[in-house]
Each structure stands twice: as C-alpha cells, then as structure tokens.
C-alpha cells in the first residue's frame, strides 16, 4: 500500500477527484490555504495498492497537465488614448507536485 | 515513531480527539473539504510511538465505529393522501480509513 | 527525497513560509482546524532533498522558537475596587512538532 500525496491547482481538483472516484480510488481532499507561490492549490491524499501507483500518477498527469491560458490582466494599463484597457496575458496553469510514501499498515472499516 | 493518518467522519472528530488527548496522544486535525464519497470527513494526524500504534487504532475503532442510524429523508415523498410525508431511512455512519506511515525523524520543542 | 511535516503556530506561519520560499523550498500550507491543545496551529508540508533536511529543520527552529509573551488576560478579573481590571499574564508561544517521512517517489511537472 502506498499513499499518494498530490498538490494540484484548485481548478483541476474536481475533475481529478471525479475521475479517481469513477476508477474506484479513495481520495481525500485537504483544504490548502495560501499557497503563496501558486495560490489556490488543493492537496489530495489517495491510498493506493503498490501496483496501481503508476496508474494513479498517469491519471493525475492527464487531468492536471500544465497548459497555457490567456487571461485578461487584472490591473488594466492606461492605453495611449488615456483610457484603461485590459490586455490579455499568457499564464501557465495546471501541473502537480506528487509525493509517494510507503504505508506500513492500512485499515478501512 | 509512526504517523497515524486517520480519515473519519466529522461527527466523530470531537469525541475521538478528546479521547486521544486525555490519553496523552498529540493530535492535529486537518480541515478536509468535500469528501465527495463520504461528505463531511475530517483527517487527523497523530504522532505515536511504534509500540502504541495498536492502542491508537483500537481507540479510533472504538470511537468511530460504523453504525446504523435512522434519519428522516431530506426530500419528503408525496403520500397517498397527497400530503408530503417525511419518511425514516437507515444510513450507515462512522467508520475510518487509517494509514500508518513510518517516521524517519521526530522532533518536538 | 523526504517529506517534512511541520505543525507550527498560526502566528509563525507567514514568516516561516516566506523564509522557506526565499531559500527555494517548496512549501504547502494545510488549513489546520481546532488544534485543541494548542489552538490555532498550521501544518506545513515541505518536500526536500535528503541532504537538506537538517537545514530545513534549522530554519523551522529559528523561525518558530518557543518564547515567553506577555498577554493581557482575555477575561478581566474584578479588582478590589469592584472594577474589572485586565491583568498581564505570561504565556509560552511558538514551538513546532516535526515529522520527517521518507519519500518513495517524487514528481513535479
Ligand atoms: Ni481527462
Ligand atoms: Ni467510546
Ligand atoms: Ni528569523
């Protein structure tokens, strides 16, 4: 038995937990406050049989892939006309940090 | 030293943490959001000497036993008389998922 | 790779996470509810290379040292004059509980 601890972005949390649940993995979502570097992350802990660890990692990679996203800058700059114009910027979202830890003893009842 | 990670139902959390504290175990309660399968669960982490792990597991089993509970259905059905009548349903509450993890190094100061 | 799990007081959390981030450690802050013994604690998980564990522990000790603090008692007692007078009391704040756990597999993408 292994414990997979995955730190992912909030916006990927629901899709990932739904997918893991469909595939019969037991997932617990921890409230993660104030990721200061990447704000808005979620920590999942997933108990998983040793031989299923790679499958779980593949699912996390699939659902939490890093990708570029165009967002509108939250603080509009003043354009040459003197009017505030929001402008689009490209940000990287998604990604995951995964720790796999060995489990001495596992009980569920 | 071992780390016991216990995922239990919210309603058992206070009784269990009180009991563990009385018996001098150090417990930390993590806010667990949106257990989607079992909504409303709490994750406890308990640092415990190797030879005390079974005692802690026994306490968790004692305080978080699975049991049947009669609840009134939240969405009343329409009775034959045309009146909405809430009806009692039996649900299983309690239970725990427990992971025991080996600790390399433990410090408290 | 090791996982350092540190339970510290809320008031030390920002300074510690800032310091660890400056020194390029990846920190995740978990919301910890209702520490019943020490109310208001925070749990940090820090993924760290084996040879850096002692450095991280030193940083935690430095930023979360136990120290005495004079606080005004929250429930003022009635003085001899019959007037409620707040009085200063000395409390111990700070400190940390640290678990270091071995990591089987570590991924970041
Ligand atoms: Ni997908
Ligand atoms: Ni009992
Ligand atoms: Ni300092």
Automatic annotation (TrEMBL), chains A, B, C:
Keywords, in A-Z order: Receptor
Keyword Transferase: no
Domain of life per record: Bacteria
Signal peptide start and end residues: none
Protein name: Cyclic-di-AMP receptor
